[in-house]
């Protein structure tokens, strides 16, 4: 089973703060929908670009994508 990383991009001087706040909403969605997901996060790509993300199994992705409308997605590989 492949996992996909759904990504929301934020740009501008407040991008990191916005991405951090967006992760709160992702966690709220997971709890509200009673999903068995536990990988979310946010990070700065550079000074004016940050992302928030959620990792979902490929077979569960379509309804989550349709509900949350991420900007993009990519294959998720765990880093150790």
Number of domains: 1
CATH architecture: 2-Layer Sandwich
> Quick check: average pLDDT?
96
CATH class: Alpha Beta
Terminal residue distance: 19 Å
- The global form is globular
Secondary-structure element string: EHEEHE
Unreliably modeled segments = none
Estimate what percentage of residues fall within beta strands.
35-45%
CATH topology: Alpha-Beta Plaits
| Gyration radius over CA | 12 Å
Q: What does the largest sheet look like?
A: 4 strands, antiparallel
What structural category characterises the helix and strand content? Answer: alpha+beta
Question: Helical percent range?
Answer: 25-40%
Task: Please give the order of strands in the largest beta sheet.
Answer: 2-3-1-4
Q: How many distinct helices?
A: 2
Number-wise, the strands total 4
Question: Features of this protein?
Answer:
alpha+beta; 80 residues; four-stranded antiparallel sheet; Alpha-Beta Plaits
Sum this structure up briefly.
Helices cover 32% and strands 36% of the residues.
Task: Give a verbal description of the structure.
A four-stranded antiparallel sheet has the order 2-3-1-4. A hairpin with a 2-residue loop joins strand 2 and strand 3. The mean pLDDT is about 95. It has helices at about 15-30, 60-70, and strands at about 5-10, 40-45, 50-55, 70-75. It is α+β, with helices and mostly antiparallel strands. The longest helix is centred in the first third of the chain and has 18 residues, at about 15-30.
